[in-house]
């Protein structure tokens, strides 16, 4: 049984972390070594994946710990370049765990296939004709015929909607259950297959035929509670931290400039899980930010309040269309392995994991902002990258990083000066 509680994980060497992760996941020793060779994507495969390839580009793959959702533990894989993101999400997940963990749910994997028409002579009449029961059944059957493999897996077209966009413009939505696929190619196929028949019934000129990334039929909802005692630290009581987080949440609700950064912190957790599992993070970002502006004003995706028992309570709802089959997973070994690490059985379950890590990232950022500020913890971890850029290697990385962080001068110049003093030969080699 997977446990996401791995105390001291960050203190281990890379190899020790791999062995411990394998043991936690029930994998044979060396499984991670083999799966992550060359980052899971060799140059030859990359050359056949996209155009104009000249190589591959590596990113760190890490694990977010302490995640517990609906009573089950998860090790959440994250691919991200920004220091402190993984540590912050793991730490906040531990706080949420103290309140019973996350509660999450995900809607059925319904995607929207859009068929746009313009120059429609009678939009109201066209809408009535398209939604007439016999015609609607015909169109849904045509949609299913375009994606027989999806139908065989239990998915397929579920419903039709017609929207009047004004000035003779209209759009037909075909709602398609994509099962465990993200579904972009499937719904695009449906749109292109149905468009001629839709235009024949409605009149007008065929326009765009493509999916919508505002996947508001495929929502994920997360809630959690954190005891005030789990928030205390840095000289602040738990109640002080709690109230500071609530005020920061209210700030995001009142100000779109703050809401944008608030939501960026949420996506700091979601995007790395999406990338690690071979999913389309650009589509996820588009849907999330569109949802944040659904009421005509851009607002926060996650909000925080004080519960009746004095605990901090967080809630989040956003569209999140992910897949566990097809796409990048066909060619990217590390993406497939990351999906195995996540231990999910459905696209909906993966969406819940990603969303919960997003809530953790938001909580961690707000807690820092409500206490000592965002920079202290971030710069402590950023100092390691700076030390490496200055030429530090091996044990010197941590030594140089600690020195420049304690001095409050986390710059490459300061790191080079520290490295020159601590190990002149190493600094000389770096310069060469």
Description of the structure:
With 432 residues, the chain is of the alpha+beta class. Helices cover 50% and strands 18% of the residues. The chain has 17 helices and ten strands. The chain has helices spanning 14-25, 31-35, 43-49, 85-98, 123-131, 133-146, 148-152, 184-202, 238-254, 256-276, 281-292, 333-342, 347-370, 375-389, 395-407, 412-422, 424-431; strands at residues 61-69, 72-79, 103-106, 110-118, 156-166, 169-177, 205-211, 219-226, 302-306, 312-319. It has a four-stranded antiparallel beta sheet. Strands 5-6-4-7 form a four-stranded antiparallel beta sheet. Strands 1-2 form a two-stranded antiparallel ribbon. α4 (85-98) crosses α13 (347-370), α6 runs antiparallel to α8 and α15 packs across α16. The chain is globular. The N and C termini lie far apart (50 Å). The model is unreliable at 427-432 (pLDDT under 50).
* Share in helix: 40-55%
Major sheet: 4 strands, antiparallel
- What sort of overall outline do the alpha carbons produce when their principal axes are compared? globular
Q: What gyration radius follows from the Cα positions, in whole Å?
A: 25 Å
Strand proportion: 15-25%
The count of helical stretches stands at 17
Q: N-to-C terminal Cα separation, in Å? A: 50 Å
Secondary-structure class: alpha+beta
Number of strands: 10
Q: Which runs of at least 5 residues are low in confidence (pLDDT < 50)?
A: 427-432
* Sequence of strands across the biggest β-sheet: 3-8-10-9
Average pLDDT, all residues: 93
The sequence of SSEs as H and E is HHHEEHEEHHHEEHEEHHHEEHHHHHH
